[in-house]
Amino acid sequence: MVRIISDLKNRFLAENIVGRFIYINVAVFILFALLDVFATLFNITSPALYLKMWMELPSAPINFIYQPWSLVTYMFLHGGLMHILWNMLALYWFGKIFLSFFSTRHFVGLYLLGGIVGGLFFIAAYNIFPMFTSSSNNAYLVGASAAVLAIVAASAVRVPDYKINLLLIGTVKLSTLAVATVIIDLLLITSDNAGGSFAHLGGAFAGWAFAYYLNKGRDLTLYINKAIDFVANICKGGIKRPRKPKMNIFKGKRSDDYDYNAQKKEQDAEVDKILEKLKKSGYSSLTEEEKKRLFDASK
Questions:
Q1: CA–CA separation, 214 vs 180, rounded Å?
Q2: What is the C-alpha R_g of the chain?
Q3: How far apart are CA 79 and CA 141, in angstroms?
Q4: Are 78 and 146 contacting, i.e. CB atoms less than 8 angstroms apart?
Q5: How crowded is residue 271: how many other Cβ atoms within 10 Å of its Cβ?
Q6: What are the φ/ψ torsions at residue 173 (nearest 5 degrees)?
Q7: What's the pTM value of the predicted model, to 2 decimals?
């Protein structure tokens, strides 16, 4: 068992950032599934139910206030095998394209930014449109779809003519696929998964905004990555403030560095000459001035 865990850890560390995010999502899914199996065997309420309630994103603002972390945690939960399968396949395919034109830090920041904006779109939709009045207090969002669509949209903005091969469809441009996905979600905003469609649109918008502003020199993921670095530093043992350099204190008048170093070099040379004379002719051969200099140097 220890060897298996060690092997999985090594595989995780060997993966690029896309592979690591896939590992995290799959690990969470398997953990919840195992908890459900355990609970079923012993005929008890599954601990996964309470964890899910703690991690999923609620549509009601009052509930969200009590669990604001769910704006991040919800994007690592999935409702079923096909749900996580399609999301992870899309993350793998489009994540590889994304990393060809953006950095690893951009990927991490945009994944989270896309999920956050998608979650905010979800909450806003359920509290703005009368269509959701009857379910605005008991709807919840899970899944990485908004985060994945942010990756897709950003890649489409950066390389719109990038060609990909789709099963049964053939070769299409990445920009065409991104636009088609957005249109489909617009058509589905009145379906049973309306909240998910709004989240998808939010993620796509985040991806477009990221790539658009990055071309203008502004990185929308900058502060997210700074927040991640801040948390990482705390987890490593606290924030280390830069130590102030030690300063030597001199009494009286002090020369500047250049003059001081030149003077010190000259004094050392004189002492070396005195020591050489002492070695050859003995202490009695030294003048009173030389004896004094040697005495001062020894102090």
A1: 24
A2: 33
A3: 9
A4: no
A5: 16
A6: -75, 150
A7: 0.76
